[in-house]
Request: fold
Amino acid sequence: MDDTQLLKGVLEGCVLSVISRGETYGYEILSVLMENGFDTLIEGTLYPVLTRLQKKGLIACRVGKSPLGPSRKYFSITPEGEAYLAAFTENYAKITQAARNILDNE
Amino acid sequence: MDDTQLLKGVLEGCVLSVISRGETYGYEILSVLMENGFDTLIEGTLYPVLTRLQKKGLIACRVGKSPLGPSRKYFSITPEGEAYLAAFTENYAKITQAARNILDNE
DNA sequence: AGAAACTACTTGACAATGCAAAGTAGCTGT
DNA sequence: ACAGCTACTTTGCATTGTCAAGTAGTTTCT
Reply:
């Protein structure tokens, strides 16, 4: 089974949700998502998502030093991002409800 | 909000699930899905899904007359389709669990 | 009979997004 | 100096939903 398609769209909302908890950076977001069940997620997938979110103005970015390793890009959510996240969560609930209606009902 | 991306992959499994309940045809599948919450689904999206499922051998197809209107393509699920649906359902549960972990946890 | 409305399926161009695979580079410990 | 970890980037690719039409058979209303 290939779960690639199931991830579409969901990932963007989840990344935003992680950032909404407080300023963080790519590598940390990656580990949080992987620990929570997105275990096949790779950097080449995550970083473009961050770029997209930034372009849409949903997150803000600053470069800062790391206590260990190369410097990081720290992301935080914007008011637009909060609004988008709320809309996303609602929409996601609607779709999953519809899917459950169909899949559960034999 | 655009729910296009959220549909990806989910739709294929849902269509298969509807067909698994018994032989049916495109137009009917469309109305079942729309009644269950996929209210923006259109024909141009559904029919390509059916073609894909058929190409993968997950559903079988026969052409038959309709009691009203033009003739229909009747679809039924194959053993491969049943197996795929089971795998899909499991995988879907896993992804939605992961997403819930992330989205619910403030 | 003619027109409109409904049933039913088809097609081509398009955009969004995840993945694979590879690269660049800083830092730490041996 | 070398290995291993941290951290971000880039290019090319495949999949899939949508838009916007189009083709046709059947029924109903006038």
Observations:
- Residues 4-5, 7-9, 11-12, 40-42, 44-45, 48-49, 52, 66, 68-71 of chain A lie near DNA strand C (CB under 10 Å from a C1').
